[in-house]
Amino acid sequence: MDEATPILLVGCGKMGGAMLAGWRDRGVGADAIFAVEPSAELADTIRASHGITVVATPEALPGDLRPATVVLAVKPQMMDGAIAAYGRYAAAGALMLSIAAGKTIAYFEKHLGQGAAIVRSMPNTPAAVGRGITALAANRHVSPAQRGAAEKLLAAVGETVWLDDESMLDAVTAVSGGGPAYVFLLIETLAKAGIASGLPEDVAMRLARATVTGSGELARRSDESAEQLRRNVTSPGGTTLEALKVLMADDAIQPLFDRAIAAATARSRELAG
Prior knowledge:
It is a single chain. The chain is an alpha/beta fold and 273 residues long. The chain has 2 domains: 2-168, NAD(P)-binding Rossmann-like Domain (Rossmann fold, 3-Layer(aba) Sandwich); 177-272, ProC C-terminal domain-like (ProC C-terminal domain-like fold, Orthogonal Bundle), CATH 1.10.3730.10. The protein has 12 helices and 8 strands. It has helices spanning 14-25, 40-50, 79-82, 87-91, 105-112, 144-155, 169-177, 179-196, 201-221, 226-233, 239-247, 253-272; strands spanning 7-10, 33-36, 53-55, 69-72, 95-98, 117-122, 132-138, 158-162. Helix 5 links the parallel strand 5 (95-98) and strand 6 (117-122). Helix 7 crosses helix 12 and helix 8 crosses helix 9 (201-221). The model has no long low-confidence stretch (mean pLDDT 95).
């Protein structure tokens, strides 16, 4: 990751902390990472866990720091108050990599300068266990080397996919950004259905949780399509087929998900607007 370092991490919350852990696990030295984190308790934890330099404000950063990459991991609602302090790094040619939902490339160009090299990304919460997926979009000022640096930094917490059109990030937010919540809802729903069919609550939840997580791992490891994996479980005339007749009816799960993803995509556009 030499082309990405030194790294300045702005915000060490759940996602920023997950990325930091991934970088350290991949061999990025503590002396190559600097962080700004106003929470004294969290800053102390980060120092103890990773041995990096953590300061409370950007003004406390070393005066001679010249980061190759600035990772903006603060909450979107806090970005307006934080962004101005990092314009000097953008002006010096640093890659500005944002994981803040709803903050567009145009927003960062307005605050950091029209010539700033900006990558906007949308990771998801499985990044906390190294199983995330992040979509990225870059402006025209991002060099091939900087694209590679952004990809390596985010690959430390899972898979990555580049988008040619930044506007696709609204649909990405709906599908993979919010997707973990839909999967957790599936666990809840499956468990409740098991309880309704006579299973004890603890047994139903254990079965549902293990089934969903195990099926996800099977899908990850398999070269077969999701459709084929589904067919592999479905015996002709069997119990699974009867359940799928309900779930795959014309007015069942597909149109429901179509409406849900459309609603989330529209809301993402409103928030970015």
